[in-house]
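so ive been stuck on this for like two days lol. basically i have the seq below and the ligand is adenosine-5'-triphosphate, smiles is in there too. i just want the complex predicted, nothing fancy, no docking runs or whatever. if the output looks off dont worry ill sanity check it later, just need somthing to start from for the group meeting slides
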Amino acid sequence: MNILNRLHSYARNHGQDIAIRSGDSFFTYAQLDDLSGRLANYIEERCGGNKAPVVVYGHKGIYMILCFLASVKSGRAYCPLDISIPDTRVEDTISAARPSVIFALEEMTADVKGAISLEETKEIIEKTKEPIDESHYVSGDDVFYIIFTSGSTGTPKGVQITADNLNHYLEWSVGLGTRPEDKLGKVFLNQAPFSFDLSVMDVYTCLASRGTLYLLDKEVQLDFKRLIPALQESGAAVWVSTPSFADMCMADKSFSAELMPKLETFLFCGETLTNTTALKLMERFPDAVIMNTYGPTESTVAVTEIQVTKELAETVQPLPVGVPKPGTFFEIHQEDGSLAPAGESGEIIIVGDTVSAGYFGREDLTRKAFFDCMKDGRNHRAYRTGDKGYLDDEGNLHYQGRIDLQIKLNGYRIEIEDIEKNIVRLEEISHAVVVPNIKEGKVKSLTAFVTGCTKPESGFKFSKEMKERLRAFLPAYMIPKKIVHMENLPMNNNGKVDRKQLGGLA
Ligand SMILES: Nc1ncnc2c1ncn2[C@@H]1O[C@H](COP(=O)(O)OP(=O)(O)OP(=O)(O)O)[C@@H](O)[C@H]1O
């Protein structure tokens, strides 16, 4: 599949269909294709031989996607930066990317010179009458986008995803949870900021399916009084978010099939989907299909899928993340780099057609994380995920947490996520995040932050009781020193549980 050609054909044959909506603004397929082609012409004329990426700064406006498409039509990768990114990181990213053009579609407070504002972008498009020729479009191994990871599990790096990576990903994602034809013309919900690659799952799967992308901005997401009516108004059939965001929505009783009667598919990625969340969602949306998918930015959003049925959610805990998409293979490596025996756990290595070429301008980091590998008689790109997992007899991948969330406490080697999985076995608790208390580089104790039950009268008593009961599941050295009840776990800008913030509270 070639997404840019597909957009062209939609613009020609279904030009009046709405491609993107944000509040009262929208672009039809004809507008999106035409205006992005014209803006691409401007970029090419202005930059000529400078093929450096285009930085697009902003939030959930419809012009964001228009600028992404203009960049790739001009033959340049784009690098999306959301307004939630702190100024210093915006500045660092821009100095690393050395962009050919910067579009700042929202007001920018970072120290950045020469950015083109939204008003100027509109004027440029108005003045540039001709769309760019297709021969300029990024294709094959050309980089389509560069996403700087959030750093939730390390330091931010610019992951380069090529046109081929994206096209291979889309061939699979249009069929996630439903047949591809069942997604045609449907509404897709966008929760994730564009600087988080989860958004690629809704933006491009939607555009590839001639759907309407419904953008939910940050302020709406944080205000139930606006969020619930927006969800209702969206008419969404495909839901794409982190599980944490769905959990947050479930705090409102009206979040159900009555509110969103057209909702057919939940697509989750980015963090663990707990059995509790899946089961609660099934109660609220009995007819919807729930898909768990897994993958890092480095292998284009997601590379596995599994439909979470009631039976699965009731019998297998934690939930598997599923089987690889076509064109993806897994290897499980032991600490010494050799292949783990069948069924045993180790580092998950992703091999295949959606694995990135590497990090932008960071040959050193690229060499550490990526390598080439033969599979089925062909050379493939492979990526060391830093995630731990194993493959079961049916070929399902089971994710067991980050290798770097392994700590040493009083000489014991402990998997933080192992403790979390056991805490949620306690009836009252639906989510648990355990953070180490570190002094002088050494782990001194552990604190667990939990949600689920109503606020206990005495935090001390609650902690004591939970710890007592945890003894049924965990050895004493793995039981956190404190168990703290919270109404909600804090989320980072990408909508994942914010471990760093909790670390500060421990
Ligand atoms: N379905 C899933 N279940 C559990 N964990 C998941 C799932 N999908 C993704 N993850 C976790 O999210 C990671 C990928 O996150 P992402 O590429 O968004 O980077 P990030 O959160 O910005 O972190 P960093 O910046 O440190 O790379 C995976 O490597 C895995 O640890």
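The domain at 327-357+367-401 is CATH 2.30.38.10 (Luciferase; domain 3). The pocket of adenosine-5'-triphosphate is lined by residues 149-154, 156, 269-273, 292-297, 321, 385, 387, 399, 402, 496 (CB under 6 Å).
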